[in-house]
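Notes to self, Cellular retinoic acid-binding protein 1:
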Amino acid sequence: MPTSLCGTWDMISNVNFDAYMNALGIGVYLRKIALRLKLRKVIEQQGDQYIIKTLSTFRNYAISFKTGQEFEEFTKGLDNRHIKVRTDVVNVGNKLTCEQVGEKKNRGWAHWVEGDKLHLELHCDGEVCKQVFKKNVNE
Ligand code: ECB
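result:
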């Protein structure tokens, strides 16, 4: 079980997001909008069941899944693809990892906590985006 990812987390840094979105085939207009967003993650967990919400002033996105079980993800409002997804809890480094198998090669993400920060690494096709979020204790 990783250190709890639960809570409300506000983005404080976002490195290489543009290249990650470009790898997903997102056009320049949408990338410009997305780059300005301060994303918020709201993560809930009960046992193996997770809900991860990504919130912004522009669009929201949510997934729910059980770790260790394959599911279908439709990335509605993002790159709008249907992908097969599997998340796992990896004990090394206490990470929650996700492999997103579909048209795009080497696609997935990993979440982990260090101190009061939530880390997210998103990868697609050789591009790696690194996002860091600070715990919002008021929510
Ligand atoms: C939902 C807020 C972002 C809205 C951006 C809108 C358009 C840009 C289109 C595609 C960009 C690709 C990804 C957006 C980046 C972050 C959103 C969710 C990333 C993700 O997979 O989060 C995981 C891990 O926390 C859970 O879904």
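- Helices lie at 17-23, 28-35.
- The pocket of ECB is lined by residues 21, 24, 26, 30, 34, 37, 39, 41, 52, 54, 56, 58-61, 63, 78-79, 109, 120, 122 (CB under 6 Å).
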